[in-house]
Amino acid sequence: MAAPALPAVGERMERVVLVTGASSGVGLALCRRLLEEDRRIHLCVACRNAQRSEATRESILAAHPTARVSTVEVDLASLASVLRAARDLRRRLQRLDFVYLNAGILPNTHMDFKALWQGLLTGKALHMLTTAEGIMTQTDRLNGDGLQEVFATNLFGHFILVRQLESLLCGNERPSQLIWTSSSSARESAFSLSDYQHAKGQESYSSSKYATDLTSVVLNKKLNKQGLYSSVVCPGLVMSNLTYRILPVFVWKLLMPIMWLIRFFAKTYTLTPYNGAEAHVWLFKQKPESLDALVKYHSCTSGLGKNYVEPRKIYVDEETAEKFYEKLLELEKQALERYDDLLDN
Ligand SMILES: NC(=O)c1ccc[n+]([C@@H]2O[C@H](COP(=O)([O-])OP(=O)(O)OC[C@H]3O[C@@H](n4cnc5c(N)ncnc54)[C@H](OP(=O)(O)O)[C@@H]3O)[C@@H](O)[C@H]2O)c1
């Protein structure tokens, strides 16, 4: 479905918001919540294919029939698809005020229940249960572009999208915001500059989310002057298609009473996509200039079910971040050479 044309500049300046991973979970809840905040936004939902885009659009319109919702198809694991989507958006839009880089995968996950049991005995269980450190590993694979799939989907596809949309994001009369859905699983120990796609390890998800944090830090340094600000958020532990791939739905349902109890101690057990989108929605209402680039904004839910946002410092080595960014640029150069026909020259 093509987007309705935007009003000419000077007419009502509604905010234009793009959300990736809008078809389910946090992304879908976020779309609905953004329309509750401001029903005049032009919401563009980015989904993997036309069928999912249309289903997402219809589901949003069912609750907000007068909302302005357009769609764009993007498979973030395919560079050609990302370049096509960016070209499509450049042709259709005059600017973008918010881009939520939210799509993500956590495939082929293995849980180490023995490590969790040992954590219970050594007092580390709460840390393990809130960060998945030491209890969750993945088996990754190469995608059609020859990139590690988790890196490509969670970070690199989004990075290329942002780079290709710079003309819509920078130099606008109002600042624009990138909001990356990172995770509390983002861990420096899972990331290495020499294997930044994480081909050799078994923590590709943590690595990709740490790489996301590094990227956001550098984007702020490079683009704040041009009016583009970048933030990272963690939705907390949310029951979604992503978590249902770790354990079957019925197991999660059986565990639910325990998780409600854990929530009294672990406020990042947000559990529902609505709660998980709290930090994303909070950022929608902030002045980007007032945000701290070295903070991750966590969606939290109290034991009694009250939602709030907790900023937590992120510890990134800025030199590593810069070096990693250089590597992303090198990889981008190689990618763009291959897909020259999809660029507007
Ligand atoms: N759930 C949690 O506990 C948790 C915790 C921390 C961080 N997160 C992060 O939160 C974000 C949203 O996850 P969620 O929990 O809402 O899971 P979800 O319901 O599985 O949503 C993931 C979204 O990403 C999309 N997606 C996946 N691969 C894609 C691709 N190649 N191209 C385009 N879109 C793609 C999915 O689209 P399809 O419908 O087409 O698959 C879906 O819309 C992710 O970045 C995740 O890493 C989640």
Automatic annotation (TrEMBL):
Gene3D superfamilies: NAD(P)-binding Rossmann-like Domain (3.40.50.720). Pfam families: adh_short. Keywords: Endoplasmic reticulum, Glycoprotein, Lipid biosynthesis, Lipid metabolism, Membrane, NAD, NADP, Oxidoreductase, Steroid biosynthesis, Transmembrane, Transmembrane helix. It catalyses: 5alpha-androstane-3beta,17beta-diol + NADP(+) = 17beta-hydroxy-5alpha-androstan-3-one + NADPH + H(+); zymosterone + NADPH + H(+) = zymosterol + NADP(+); 4alpha-methyl-5alpha-cholest-7-en-3beta-ol + NADP(+) = 4alpha-methyl-5alpha-cholest-7-en-3-one + NADPH + H(+); 3-dehydro-4alpha-methylzymosterol + NADPH + H(+) = 4alpha-methylzymosterol + NADP(+). This is 3-keto-steroid reductase/17-beta-hydroxysteroid dehydrogenase 7. GO terms for biological process: cholesterol biosynthetic process; estrogen biosynthetic process. It is a single-pass membrane protein. Pathway: Steroid biosynthesis; zymosterol biosynthesis; zymosterol from lanosterol: step 5/6; Steroid biosynthesis; estrogen biosynthesis. Its main location: endoplasmic reticulum. Belongs to the short-chain dehydrogenases/reductases (SDR) family. ERG27 subfamily. It is an enzyme of class 1 (oxidoreductase). One of its GO terms (cellular component) is endoplasmic reticulum membrane. It comes from the Eukaryota. Binds to the short form of prolactin receptor. One of its GO terms (molecular function) is 5-alpha-androstane-3-beta,17-beta-diol dehydrogenase (NADP+) activity. InterPro entries: 3KSR/17beta-HSD, NAD(P)-bd_dom_sf, SDR_fam. It is found in: Endoplasmic reticulum membrane. Its EC number is 1.1.1.210, 1.1.1.270, 1.1.1.62.
